[in-house]
Every structure is written in structure tokens, then in C-alpha cells.
Amino acid sequence: MNQNKWVGVVAVVSLILGIYLAITIAPPDISKKPLSEQTEFMSWYPQARALNDFVLTNHNKQTMTNADLKGKWTLAFVGYTFCPDICPVTLAEINKIYPELAQQASSTPLQVWFLSVDPRRDTTERLNEYIQYFNEDFIASTGPHDQLFPLVRSMGMMYAMSDDMSNPNYLVDHSASIVVINPDGNVVGRFKPKQELGKLSISDMDELKVDVPILLKQG
Predict the structure, then answer these.
(1) Are 97 and 216 in contact (CB under 8 A)?
(2) What is the Cα–Cα distance from 25 to 127, expressed in whole angstroms?
(3) What is the C-alpha separation between 109 and 103, in angstroms, rounded?
(4) Which residues span the membrane (predicted)?
(5) Burial status of residue 195 (CB atoms within 10 A of its CB: 0-12, 13-18, 19 or more)
(6) pTM for the complete prediction?
């Protein structure tokens, strides 16, 4: 009888100890971490960057301003429609994963924005035809360089026009990262292009498939 009593006491103590250990060493709630610590691949800026105020024209001949970036997560890419490689490949790759990403958006939708820095050749008609080839939900816009230069710079990106624009097939140097803009309309980071020998340097879509859903769940 006495032995049974001790067995019962040991069992109760063991149960209490087990509950205590489960509580104290339980894995931390990841949702309480800063968003920048929850993602795995995205390169976060030290602080969110306000975009320079802009007034552009989108592919539907409508005015586009900073207000069009509010209330949604935006994946932005700087380029031009005459780009021979990085731009079309990046947009095509984003299009492949876009349906999966868009489905995971809760109250805050996801949009893809192609910002052309070649207004001389990229008319609204050309932008419309170009962007709808990839996805009808994507947005494309452009504007004069006095709008584009400060806007692109505020994104943490760059572009440079060719020295010889007499050639109708001139090239434009531009950043290849995919920029992430939060629902406040501020730039928070980017997905850098992968540098691999013999391969085109574009952002890794597998990395976006891991990190973007985490952003979308935060609203």
C-alpha cells in the first residue's frame, strides 16, 4: 500500500515535470518574430524605404501613382520590352509561380509590376501587348526620365541608357533584382539574381515560392 502511494507520487511529479518542460522548451512562435526573421532568402533593407513620388502611365493608358501600390504586396521589376534576355525570362518565370502565390494571398492581394525605363520605345501600346503576353493581371508602366530616375533610385535599383541611341536596337543597362514593396507602398527588400557560370542571372523562383507566402500571410 505504502509502495503504491510512492508510485502515485512519482507519477504525479513526473507528469508535472513533463508539462513544465514542454512549456519552457517549446519552440518559439514564429509568428511573433519580425517578418524579416521569418523569411529565408529575401534580402531585407535595414529600414523600409519610401518611394519617390511618381506619376506614370500604365499599359492601359491610365495614370499610375504611389497610391496604386497601397494595400497590396508588389513584386516590381525594372526593365524594358526590347531587353533580349533577362526581362522576358524573369517575367515568364514569375508567371509560372504567380497563380500559386496569388492563391495564398489572404486579405492583402499580390501584384506584379513591370517598370519600363525605356519610354522612348515602350509606348503604352507596346507595353500592353508585351505585358499581356506574360499575364493579363500584371501591370506595366513607364514615364519620362525625370520621373523614372529618382523612382528607380529610391527602389535601390539603377539603369543607364546607351551612349549611342541612334541605333534603334540600343540596349539599356538595368538592375535584375525583383523588388518587394509592402502594403504601405514602401520598399522593404529584394530577391537578388543568382550568379551562376554559364547561366542567365535572374532571381530564383524557388526562393520566391518559399518567402512570398510568408509575406502574404502577414497581410
Answers:
(1) no
(2) 55
(3) 9
(4) 6-26
(5) exposed
(6) 0.84
List pLDDT tens digits, range 173-198: 999 999 999 999 999 999 999 988 88
DSSP state of 38: H
Displacement of CA 166 from its chain's centroid (Å): 35
- Write the DSSP assignment of 135-195 as a string of letters: -TT-EEEE--HHHHHHHHHHTT--EEE-S-TTSTT--EEE--PEEEE-TTSEEEEEEPBP-
Q: Are 56 and 124 in contact (CB under 8 A)?
A: no
How buried is residue 97: exposed, middle or buried, by Cβ count under 10 Å (0-12/13-18/19+)? Answer: middle
**Annotated binding residue at 145?**
no
86: Cβ contacts below 8 Å, ≥ 6 apart: 79, 176, 193, 200, 201, 202
Question: Which residues fall within 8 angstroms of residue 35, CB to CB, at 6 or more apart?
Answer: 214, 215, 218
CA separation for the pair 118, 131 (Å, rounded): 15
3-state DSSP call for residue 96? helix
Of 21, 23, 181, 214, nearest in space to 113 by CA: 181
pLDDT, tens digit, for every residue of 134-148? 999 999 999 999 999
Please give the domain boundaries of the chain with CATH numbers for all domains. Answer: 32-218 (3.40.30.10)
Element (H, E) at 9: helix 2-24
59 labelled ligand-binding: no
CB 55 within 8 A of CB 147: yes
